[in-house]
Amino acid sequence: MTTGPGRTRLGALRARRGEEAGFTMVLVMGLLLLSTMFALAAWSATHNDIPAAAHDVNSKRAYGAAEAGIDYYRFHLNQDNAYWSNCTNVPAPGPGQASPVNQVWNGQGLDPRAWRNLPNSQSQYTIELLPQNGYTQCSVAQPALSMIDSSTQALQIRATGRSNGVKRTIVATIRPAGFLDFLYFTDLETLDPAVYQLTNPDQASWAAQNCVVYRRDGRPDGCTAIVFANADVISGPLHTNDDLLLCGSPTFGRSSTDNIEVSAPPPGWAQSGGCSGSPTMKGTYKTTARILSMPSTNTSLAAVAKAQYTFTGATSIVLNGTSMTVTNQAAGLSNFPMALPANGVIYVQNGACGSTYNFQQQYNDPTGCANLYVKGTYSQSLTLASAGDVVVTGNLVRNGNVTLGLIPNNFARVYHPVSFDGGGGCSNASSGPYGPAPGSIEIDAAILSLQHSVIVDNWYCGDPLGTLSINGAIAQKFRGPVGTGSISNVVSGYIKNYTYDDRLKLISPPYFLNPIQSQWVVARFTEQAPAI
After folding, report:
1. Across the chain, what does the average pLDDT equal?
2. For a surface tag, which of 100, 194, 210, 421 has the fewest beta carbons within 10 Å of its beta carbon?
3. Peptide bond into 530 cis (omega under 30)
4. Confidence class of residue 10 from pLDDT cuts 50, 70 and 90?
5. What is the pLDDT of residues 467-512, one digit of tens each?
6. What average pLDDT does range 269-297 have in this prediction?
7. 196: pLDDT confidence band, cut at 50, 70 and 90?
8. What is the Cα–Cα distance from 411 to 408, expressed in whole angstroms?
9. What is the DSSP letter of 510?
10. At CA 237, angle to CA 232 and CA 242, rounded to 5?
11. Is there a contact between 336 and 300 (Cβ–Cβ < 8 Å)?
12. CA-to-CA distance for 513 and 294, rounded, in angstroms?
């Protein structure tokens, strides 16, 4: 056995190492404690996030259910245009299921609404009909007044979705797709048969029998073709139930947000004889679009107009902001001041008339004919309708965020008096029954000619008049001429300057007419907070 100093040093070293063993254990235990604390903190954080994550999932499911409610109602509208007019008296979605369409609820007391489950889901939705024009609920007896907003021609529904106690509510403004969606709408891309009188009265009769047909269905070559020329620009959306006839490369639309729709099959356009080129489509082009059928008459507006705003025979109106002056022989009125109608509708009906369109317009139609002559400035939304023609006699401009509709059964005309020399010639007149021939003219309106065209009187003679600026929308049965010459060299009549009023997508003239059996589209989509 070793003894001495070496043994002593080795023993001391072993003694110190033994003393450090306890210190090492403390470090190990500390590290284990820290690891445990981190694990507990991570578990706690994850555990606390579970309710928030679940709420987020249920919130998304509830929103999706509310969207499904909007889609459910719109689907039935597009199946049946009168679906909305039945209020809550609509079919159930299936046997043993309640209809999810309800009258509006104020959120107080027990929830009276019927809910519908989404397929293969615990999420549900319910739909409420939001009344308009001061009504408290949808009325089957007065569906249009109680459900259709008189200023926008739209209806509103509210859909609420719920999932595991979480609710979200959406309010949708829905309106029919219609003439106001387009700057330029035509049913037939051909000259109005009534205008054929200019060259041959017999031809007018032939055209009425043969030209009222789409080109794809065999419109004869003898029908007058109207083309979009090389420099033509359609500054807004367009729809034609026909196809487009081109000469050169006219421009359609301002950007991809403008829909350019033709109901003909591809390509949807053709080149006029002797022409080349193709369209410049800045808008989104679509062929085989749904045909938008025009109502044959505006008599529904006659039922809306109040008695004091229904006139018989030739009527002249000058708009002055929120008032107007009226001249009407049948009623004994001469520049008679009147307030504008509260519901915004004025109607002119026929008396003793029997007159037809006169291509040599001298403004001597029988006073019983329902011709409405109008000009001025308006500060209230209006719809002016006539069983005959509407004739714009001067600038017709808006003042404020308002809209104007002009809806004649027959022609929408621009006043242009001329003097005929008896030899077939004519010149612009210095005066006429509604003033001199206008120069450049501005019309801020949505114009709908149900049976004929938007046209300039005596467009084919006299010196050039300037620029016809229409800010709004134009819809017509047939294409109507406004002048002669080329786009840059006008011989008579007007240069066209037509611009779409984008406000018409959301703000309609009062009771403006829509196509027959048109699709319903969502115009506005907003979430209501808090949900109910």
Report:
1. 89
2. 421
3. yes
4. very low
5. 999 999 999 999 999 988 765 578 899 988 999 999 998 888 998 9
6. 93
7. confident
8. 6
9. T
10. 75
11. no
12. 9
How distant, in Å, are the alpha carbons of 10, 234, 288, 472 from that of 294? 114, 21, 18, 18
- Token pair of 531, please? 């949900």
The answer to whether residues 187 and 241 touch, using CB atoms and an 8 Å cutoff, is yes
User: How far is Cα 330 from Cα 243, in angstroms, rounded to an integer?
Assistant: 44
How many whole angstroms separate alpha carbon 278 and alpha carbon 289? 20
pLDDT tens-digit map of 288-333: 999 999 999 999 999 999 999 999 999 999 999 999 999 999 999 9
pTM here? Answer: 0.79
3-state secondary structure of 34: helix
Task: Give the separation between CA 21 and CA 174, rounded to whole angstroms.
Answer: 81
Rounded CA-CA distance 222/206 in Å is: 10
Q: How far apart are CA 54 and CA 328, in angstroms?
A: 70
Q: Please, which residues have CB within 8 angstroms of residue 317's CB and are 6 or more apart in sequence?
A: 324, 325, 326, 327, 346, 372, 373, 374, 376, 384
The 8-class DSSP code of residue 288 comes to: S
Residue type, 210: N
- Pairwise CA distance, residues 118 & 319, whole Å: 53
